[in-house]
Amino acid sequence: MVAVVLGFVVAGIAGAVAYFLPVAATALQSTGQGGLPVESTSRANPSSGDPFTVLLLGSDNDAKFANNHLLTQSMILVRVVPKTNQVTMLSIPRDLWVPITGTSGSAKIMSAYANGGAANAVATVERDLGVRVDHYVWTGLRGLVELIDAVGGIDVVTTNPVLDDQYPADLSGGNPYDVARVAVLPGAQHLDGIHALEYVRSRHGDIRGDFGRSERQQQVLLALRATARGLSFANVPDLAAALSGQVSTDLGIRQIGDLLPLIGGINIDSVQRIMLLPPYTQSAQIAGQDVLLPDWSRVRPLVAQSFPP
Amino acid sequence: MIRRGGPVVALLALMAGFGLGVYHLFGLFRTETTKAAAAPSETRPLIALPGTLYLAQQGVIYRLRDGSFARFTRDARSWSQPALSPDDHLVAVARSSQSSDLYLLDGSGAVAGQITHNAGSGRDITTNHWAFYPHVGADGMRVYFAYDAPKDRQQTYRVDFAIWSDAVTGAAAQLRQLSTPNDYTGGDVSPIPLASGGLLYVRYGVDAQEHIVSRIVRRSPNGLLTPLTTEAEDCSAPALSPDATTLAMVCSGSRSQTAKLEVATFDGVTLGQRRVLIGDQLCAVPAWSPDGRGLAYLAPATTGGRFQLWWLAGATTPAPPPRQQVTENLDFDATSAPAWSGS
């Protein structure tokens, strides 16, 4: 009799394991990636209930770049206060001209990742902006597309017509230097992954350049959060399968599990969104590159105020 | 042997079935996210609406008449943004990967003529153009639309819509530019020709906080521009009532992820008092009923959901009745306003 009961228990566990297998596979592949420069014990644990910061990194992981030399086109530092569900998002312009950790000189901050991966990007942000980064999540272009498709698309109020005659056509598998025309029309609409990517990635036709793109990226992240709120634990395997190979983070699977209810509790209207527009930065040309020079006397106090230790 | 082995095999099969059941049990708790939307012609609307509505979904224009949907466009082009013409024809947009064109469609949905010719030539994709948001003038002779021309050959990053008009026949000599957009903002969209000879349209610009916002503006017959809404209101998607006395629009408020359906009286020059009709949905592309009493609009029924058709009766009354959902499980193109004919 005991053997029979045990047999059913084992069969049930096997069924559950099979269902959540994609989660385990992605967790093994993508989570718990180490390499942050400071001992993990000094970094806030999302499970503890204390405020913590996460650096979101987005890369063009297409054929133009070797996998270990990717640039981060998007860098968003997020601070979450679990007790009050308060969230602050700071978009760090990819063209910000800063000293890069691990090198002897300055460069655009997007190159920090190419010079030592996420750990170096985190170290550069920590040193230059004077802020503690507790964790990071990196994703590539396909990761964003597949995540949005896995949640069934997102609803976004696109701010304006986003028109681009030089949009990189690098996801189709052809010549990675090909370009395409993009027209994302304005207004409330339901976007799938590819069109959401066009909306957040295009920058040529925006008078605000990378700032406009950063604003759209924050908007899509919030829309993604709003949609994810309607999902259940049983959707996690689908999401894990979509993100397989497209994401990496130092967060462990248990910490991610602890984050999910937090994400659900965030009130989008209360999210503080920060951009380093002038006078915090100013455009300049260095060595033939269009860059943004930070006014550290303004940037660091702003960051210190918005991201207290 | 068989007698003793039979129950064991049956028990093992039961265990395997139980394991399979547990697997599927978890699946029952999944929120359905990837289920394909139904084709409108395979569904029935939840309520009947008067007249004939034309709506776009996934590149096909459907006709809603007498309580049922039917496929209107039948060819392989990707269709959207139908606009009524006084002669019972439609002007609609056919979009390809690099360009879009305006076409005249007859009452059966077949192409009766091509108005614009925006496909470029050669390998230089910047020779392509977009045409969107057609609106046919009251005389049926001219069509007003947003067109990304002229192109700046030196600054190929600058691509903005301007408002243009053309003869519905598409005679090139009759093409006229009616607006000059703010550079690198996306430009001007959604033209509505006025009986006075003026024009309403949506103009994008940058506010003092460096956000791109939209304003509904009126262009007088002699070309003077008057903003009808403020930058802070961030209004777009204008729809003028059939008697031209009330303007419906969608207002987001700068940077907010909201899209409220509002109406305001319109005396032909300025907007009067405005009212928020729907403030708790992501509203898109309102369209007036032919009698001017109610509004159809698109909005998702759930957070993150696809856009459905909704109906608000008594839109011009002080206290309209509650909105009614017209469709479910569809996936209407929320950048494509419904066209609504009385016949």
Molecular structure report:
- The complex is a heterodimer of chains A (309) and B (343).
- Chain A has 309 residues and is an alpha+beta fold.
- Chain A has a single domain, classed as Nucleotidyltransferase, domain 5 (2-Layer Sandwich).
- Chain A has helices at 2-19, 21-30, 117-129, 141-150, 193-201, 210-228, 236-243, 253-265, 296-306; strands spanning 52-59, 72-81, 86-91, 97-99, 106-108, 135-140, 154-158, 162-168, 179-184, 187-191, 247-249, 272-275, 281-286, 289-294.
- Chain A has a six-stranded mixed beta sheet with strand order 11-6-1-2-3-12. A two-stranded antiparallel sheet of chain A has the order 4-5.
- The longest helix of chain A is centred in the last third of the chain and has 19 residues, at 210-228.
- Chain A is globular.
- Chain A starts with a helix and ends with a helix.
- Chain B has a four-stranded antiparallel beta sheet, with no helix packed on it. In chain B, strands 4-5-6-7 form a four-stranded antiparallel beta sheet, with no helix packed on it. A four-stranded antiparallel beta sheet of chain B has the order 8-9-10-11, with no helix packed on it.
- Chain B has one helix and 24 strands.
- Chain B has one helix spanning 2-28; strands at residues 52-57, 60-65, 68-71, 78-84, 90-95, 100-105, 111-114, 131-136, 142-147, 162-167, 176-177, 188-193, 199-206, 212-219, 225-227, 235-240, 246-251, 260-266, 271-278, 284-288, 295-300, 307-312, 324-325, 339-341.
- With 343 residues, chain B is mostly beta strands.
- The interface between A and B is large, with 65 and 79 residues.
